[in-house]
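USER:
Make up one protein:

ASSISTANT:
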Amino acid sequence: MTPATPCPTNITGAIFDCDGTLVDSMPMWNALVEDTFDAYGIEKTPEMLAEAEAYNFDDMCFWFHERFGIGESGEALLAEIRSEVRRHYIEDIQMFDGCRAFLDELRAAGVRMIILSATTEPEVRVALRAHGIEGYFERVIQTSETGSDKEHPEAYEYALAALGEPAQSTWVFEDAPFAVATAHAMGLKTVCLYNDHDGRDVEFCTSHCDILAHGYAELSLARLVDYAVLQGPAAGVLEALVVDGSPCPSSAELVAQLAQESDYVIAADRGARALMAAGVTPHMLCGDADSIGDEVLSWAESVANAELRFPSEKYATDLALAIDCARHEAARRGARLHLTVTCASGGRPDHALAVLGCMAGAADASPRIVEDGFEARILSASGLSRWDLSGAADATLSVVALADNTTVSEGGMRWNLDHRHLPFLGDEGISNIVLDDQAFVECHEGLLVVYLLK
């Protein structure tokens, strides 16, 4: 085995769950629980199944016996189910695709890894040995050893102490929503490995983790390194430009101008073509490289300071991932993000609508879309609430509400509005005319997109 090299990143430790995280065993566990209830004619409820999942393996078996009278004793039921679990681990449970490669990447970087599992240690080791990954982990800790389960922070505090790495440089990898929520609430950086067939609530998981991944193909050490958490209030502003991969890109002159006005430039996949044509070097190359072309890809990889690669079959657009990169860079600098996007809106109407959705989701970053024919800004209370339109006289301006509760005022226009409520996606604000340099649009409540047509 090649000796590990010192980790050149801010990541030194990793705490992994096993079932549903390393190996695809949750269907087996769910079936075992349900079959146990069925065998004894007990009508199961979703609440009972959720309670069973939260227990560690030992406690679950004793809970079965003590609450429902299943088995001759808790010990007898534990031995019976253990035998069945081991058989499944050896015969038919598969490791998740890409898991070994990700573990290899962490180990090569010197990241120390342990397992914290509700399953008993001997059974976990059977699963690890079945796939040849036992040697990646310095220790296997079962939650019963910690005196707590993963619904409580004590389990992770125990695992952190056993790992011996700082909390701020340790990542937790889990699939169970309650476990993800516990680790995240403690301030630990968390990855939720989300599997559609495990019946998880994706919205809950997304809101209680730092990275939600639908598989190891979406994970890499580079992605973890790119992630950052803002510590304390932001100081200053990072002007970030994301050059997207529209098949109808902006002109080279506009791209060069926007880059000149920016502190940080991100190429979102095919956006590297527009940057190359404009003679602009990106700081970050982000995306799946499925439409960039070999020549441009080679150039971008040779000049960019960093690269973050994703699989082509993924659950987020290259633009959304690039916006995440911009957020992380702002966080590393302790700065407030101001976001500009170009080369994003042409070519396909569905893509243009999704771009607008991405921008609305980044409303706190005062986002704008700038193309050769127009500029659009998202106005909201959380980001930029007012756009002063000096120098835009005679231009056409349209405003469209992106939320039901949107209230807007306009001044210096042919038709002015005063705290007018606009219906969601309504057409009342379409095709106004800017009359003078004191013109403005202000969003008092809700979410608004303002188009200034050139």
User: Anything to note?
Assistant: The longest helix spans residues 74-91.
